[in-house]
Design goal:
Blueprint: H1 2-29, H2 36-43, H3 47-54, H4 57-86, H5 90-111, H6 114-127, H7 132-156, H8 162-181, H9 199-215
Helix pairs in contact: 1-2, 1-4, 1-6, 3-4, 4-5, 4-7, 5-6, 5-7, 5-9, 8-9
Length: about 230
């Protein structure tokens, strides 16, 4: 039994090394550029180990996202469900929905340690990758969250058109991901008053900013006329 446990532990360590190496290399050089042989060399493993644990390079990429993104999305759903169960209304509801989306991302990417920074680099690179299979991997993890939260934003912001809600949610994503991926930029340009690595400060700064942006009156082109019908 002890022998089987040692074998399982070694296997788990090998799988983790492969995931860590793939994260670093793909973030730095791009998915298409990095070969399985390069990943296995970096991980001190062999190609057979990749085939055994992941079956393919695409499945390896998906495993990276499952390891990092799924815990974030699970916590988002937990916090959103708690918000809805609370019966919060008005600005409080909007604030809690925003917090449910933002806070897990900021806290858990920090808890991942160096892996959090790497996965944000990876997201930035893959988001601009032209390969359709990369897009499919991303959408598989993000689509359910996008539709769940956009629906709740629409419900909490009845004065906005659907199109405006989608635009503003899209801008929210940009602000959140920039805060995470470019956090080294701000301290030296804020007299060291603002440090995104201080997670509580970052959350309490970005949440009211996003609530205000989301809840702002409709722009002229998207404004709903009396009766709820959009202007032609």
């Amino acid at each position: 039994m002890k022998s089987l446990k040692r074998t399982a532990d070694r296997g788990g360590a090998t799988r983790t090394r492969i995931l860590d190496a793939a994260e670093r290399l793909i973030a730095a050089e791009g998915y298409a550029t990095v070969s399985l042989r390069r990943i296995t060399f970096e991980a001190r493993a062999n190609v057979a180990a990749v085939n055994y644990y992941f079956k393919s390079k695409d499945a390896l990429l998906e495993a990276i996202f499952i390891r990092r993104i799924v815990p974030i999305n699970e916590e988002r759903v937990r916090m959103l469900d708690a918000c809805l169960a609370s019966g919060a209304k008005g600005t409080e509801r909007i604030e809690r929905v925003v917090r449910a989306f933002v806070e897990p991302h900021l806290r858990l990417t920090r808890e991942f340690g160096p892996g959090g920074a790497v996965v944000m680099q990876l997201l930035g690179r893959l988001a601009t990758d032209p390969e359709r299979r990369i897009e499919r991997v991303l959408l598989k993890q993000y689509d359910p969250i996008w539709w769940r939260f956009s629906g709740e934003f629409s419900a909490a912001l009845p004065h906005l058109s659907k199109a405006t809600v989608y635009w503003r949610f899209y801008y929210l994503l940009g602000a959140l991901y920039y805060l995470t991926s470019a956090r080294q930029w701000l301290p030296s340009r804020s007299e060291k008053l603002c440090d995104p690595d201080t997670i509580d400060d970052a959350i309490e700064s970005i949440v009211p900013f996003l609530v205000g942006a989301l809840a702002a009156p409709e722009g002229r082109r998207g404004r709903k006329p009396a009766g709820g019908r959009k202007r032609p």
